[in-house]
Amino acid sequence: MTRPIRDILAERALTHFVDRAPELSRLLGIFDHGGSLVTYIHGLAGVGKSTLLQAYAAQATARSITVIRLDARLFEPTADKLHELAPRAVLLIDSYEHLRLLDSWIGQNFVPSLHDSVRVVIASRYPPHAPWLIEPEWQGHFARIAKGHPLPLSLGSMQTLPRLAQLYLADAVSDDVRRAIEASSVLQRITQPLFGTS
């Protein structure tokens, strides 16, 4: 019997998925009575947000839940693109930090226009904007999963460490800061002479 390659890849990803059973269980409960309409996952680069979404997508699909997964880095963030996907059962939006300029529209227009059988799961490097947290209409319908500790979910080999280093350095605010991080990572200690100061 043949099957899509994406199923094989999803199974492989799950074999390296560790230490996030509570978060996965929480996501699997979003369709239960009283489950959140929107769940927002945020944490540092490399903490495993995408891996958590992938694990959830695999288990949700196995439970006959229709899953549409979007990576905000890979599509043009327009209202039309998002509305094309509105009738689906669960919408996963990864790399949401790329949609921050649309955040108000998503919270005030797009999500409220969805049917109440739809759930939205968002993953971002940054915490949610204030309206998600303080607006009265979202109370009880918006949940957060915050994992700021940079512990990777994929622990298959030491190859993970260079990838994590790349993710952190990509977020460095300037080339000077990036070079300082790179330099300090190979020294046993930092002294004033190393910086050329007296």
Query: What is the total number of structural domains?
Result: 2
Shape: globular
What is the radius of gyration computed over CA atoms, rounded to a whole number of angstroms?
20 Å
Mean pLDDT: 76
What is the N-to-C succession of helices and strands? Answer: HHEHEHEHEHEHHH
Major beta sheet, strand line-up: 2-3-4-1-5
Q: CA-to-CA gap between the ends?
A: 72 Å
Query: Structural class from helices and strands?
Result: alpha/beta
* CATH architecture descriptor text of the largest domain: 3-Layer(aba) Sandwich
> Helical percent range?
25-40%
Helix count equals: 9
CATH superfamily grouping of the largest domain: P-loop containing nucleotide triphosphate hydrolases
Taken as a percent bin, the fraction of beta residues is 5-15%
DSSP E strands, number: 5
List unreliable stretches of 5+ residues. Answer: 148-159
CATH class value of the largest domain: Alpha Beta
Q: Please summarize the sheet with the most strands.
A: 5 strands, parallel
Features:
single chain, 198 residues, alpha/beta, Rossmann fold, 2 domains, 5-stranded parallel beta sheet, 9 helices, globular
Can I get a quick summary?
With 198 residues, the chain is of the alpha/beta class. It is built from 9 helices and 5 strands, in the order H-H-E-H-E-H-E-H-E-H-E-H-H-H. It has 2 domains: 147 residues, Rossmann fold (3-Layer(aba) Sandwich); 42 residues, no CATH class.
